[in-house]
Design a protein that fits this description.
With 186 residues, the protein is an alpha+beta fold. Helix content is 31%, strand content 34%. It has four helices and six strands; from the N terminus they run αααββαββββ. A six-stranded mixed β-sheet has the order 2-1-6-5-4-3.
């Protein structure tokens, strides 16, 4: 386990140490309390769950082409530390998102590490023309050195979805519950 942490530390530094390139706000940890999950049809709810499942599969399979296609042209990915008001990482446009995750995935691939995400606790509501989503992700990691998958981290996810030709993410904010660098396979 210690070797895995040493192997992943460069990736965690890369992920957590990138400069902020925009003045976005991190969602408050208790933002779900005032969230109004209303105004969404069952078809829209299913479409949201399918989009977020595609996000999980793209991340787990390190498919940056699929991952970047899930974002609008003006979409952004943000990584926030718990309790922070400004994100540590802000990446905009599908091309920059793909490039960012290629650099995040490279050390994981080189070290033979695999991830699997469980997504759940969806709160889904409409605000203006957007669909707002609050949810939780539990990420597990495994390598050939491990006898079974190990929990890597738990994260809160906030997403703003918009309809272009189909439903896409305009903003995705990931906030790991424990912001200390650990395995962080993201």
């Amino acid at each position: 386990m210690r070797n895995i942490i040493k192997c992943l530390l460069p990736a965690a530094v890369l992920v957590l140490g990138m400069p902020v390139i925009a003045a976005a706000q991190c969602p408050a940890g208790d933002a779900w309390k005032s969230f109004q999950p209303a105004g969404v049809t069952n078809d829209e709810r299913n479409e949201v769950i399918d989009l977020m499942a595609r996000y999980g599969w793209a991340m787990d399979n390190r498919d940056t082409a699929v991952l970047s296609s899930l974002f609008s042209d003006d979409g952004s990915y943000e990584l926030c530390k718990t309790g922070a008001t400004q994100p540590d990482v802000v990446v905009k446009t599908p091309t920059e998102i793909a490039n960012h995750f290629n650099s995040v995935f490279r050390p994981l691939t080189e070290r033979g590490l695999n991830t699997r995400r469980l997504l759940g606790n969806y709160l889904i509501g409409k605000r203006d023309d957007a669909i707002e989503v609050k949810m939780v992700a539990v990420v597990f990691i495994q390598s050939v050195d491990m006898s079974s998958s190990q929990p890597d981290y738990l994260a809160f996810i906030s997403a703003t979805l918009v309809r272009r030709n189909n439903l896409v993410m305009q903003r995705l904010v990931v906030t790991p519950v424990d912001a200390r660098p650990s395995l962080m396979a993201r």
